[in-house]
């Protein structure tokens, strides 16, 4: 008997749950959770997908989220939606044996449903610093059962990150950088502490011009002026682009050193803020944009 496409689509989430009954997570020797069946993994989070590919384990992936656009081959996988706006039905529709999700995936209600579905759900920590990247690589490798590959990739990444950070070690005049996420409605939404933007600015040898708050928050004109940024940093992709004309037309921005000298840097979001295998290259590129030939090899 042939089953119609619509019926198969309706049954897919239930099939995913049924499959998970025989694919429950197990414990590694160190007590961490790992997948017992790694044949059909959904990767949620661009850096997670990058790491899986860097480990050479992309054959295990059956789907990815919309932030997973690198490498290009990842775009051929089914897209289960934006990592912060997940639908449990969408994730389960690909019948996964495991879900590997970056910390911060959501919304919470959707994640709670996924965890209760009994499809193994493993959350990967996301810390915006050198060690955080290495931890992420090791966690992904362990959950996939490829610890040796992960240690090799972690060692290579560690060396690259160390070299990238040393490139600005001798610079005395540290640039002040304001990361602007959005200018919608004329409001400057900027990155405070504890953000990926804050982390990458520091790794590139600069100073986050924002002080006094964490996360991404709107800034008053007075706060922008007081921040005195030398550069405005923005990202491409992931939202409406911010043009130089729009940015420097803002009176508060225009009155800062960055505005006076029209100093704006724009980089692809996944590359700049991903904190994955390519972060050493992103650190270098940002540092060169900030310091030019002061950056040493």
UniProtKB/TrEMBL annotation:
Any Pfam family the entry gives: Peripla_BP_2
InterPro entries, per the entry: ABC_Transporter_SBP, ABC_transptr_periplasmic_BD
Keyword Cytoplasm set for record: no
Keyword annotations of the record: Signal
Stretches assigned to the Fe/B12 periplasmic-binding domain: 40-294
Signal sequence range: 1-28
Gene3D superfamilies hit by this protein: Nitrogenase molybdenum iron protein domain
SUPFAM superfamilies: Helical backbone' metal receptor
Domain of life: Bacteria
The protein's name in its UniProt record: Hemin ABC transporter substrate-binding protein
Species, as recorded: Mesorhizobium hawassense
């Amino acid at each position: 008997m042939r089953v119609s496409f619509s019926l198969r689509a309706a049954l897919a989430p239930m099939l995913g749950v049924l499959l998970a009954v025989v694919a429950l997570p197990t414990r590694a020797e160190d007590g961490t959770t790992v997948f017992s069946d790694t044949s059909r993994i959904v990767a949620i989070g661009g850096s997670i997908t990058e790491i899986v590919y860097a480990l050479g384990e992309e054959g295990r992936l059956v789907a990815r989220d919309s932030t997973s656009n690198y490498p290009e081959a990842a775009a051929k996988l089914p897209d289960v939606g934006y990592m912060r706006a997940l639908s449990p039905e969408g994730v389960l529709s690909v019948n996964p044996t495991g879900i590997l999700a970056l910390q911060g995936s959501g919304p919470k209600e959707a994640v709670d449903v996924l965890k209760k579905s009994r499809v193994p759900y493993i959350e990967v920590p996301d810390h915006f610093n050198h060690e955080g990247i290495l931890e992420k690589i090791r966690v992904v490798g362990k959950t996939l059962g490829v610890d040796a590959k992960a240690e090799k990739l972690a060692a290579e990444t560690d060396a690259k990150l160390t070299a990238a950070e040393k490139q600005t070690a001798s610079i005395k005049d540290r640039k002040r950088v304001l990361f602007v996420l959005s200018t919608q409605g004329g409001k400057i939404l900027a990155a405070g502490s504890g953000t990926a933007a804050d982390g990458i600015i520091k790794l590139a040898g600069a100073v986050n011009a924002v002080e006094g708050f964490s996360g991404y928050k709107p800034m008053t004109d007075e706060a922008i002026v007081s921040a005195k940024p030398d550069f405005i940093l923005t990202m491409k992709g992931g939202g409406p682009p911010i043009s130089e004309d729009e940015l420097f037309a803002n009176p508060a921005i225009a009155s800062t050193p960055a505005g006076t000298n029209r100093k704006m840097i724009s980089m692809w979001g996944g590359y700049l803020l991903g904190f994955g295998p390519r972060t050493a290259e992103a650190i270098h590129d940002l540092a060169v944009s900030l310091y030019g030939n002061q950056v040493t090899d």
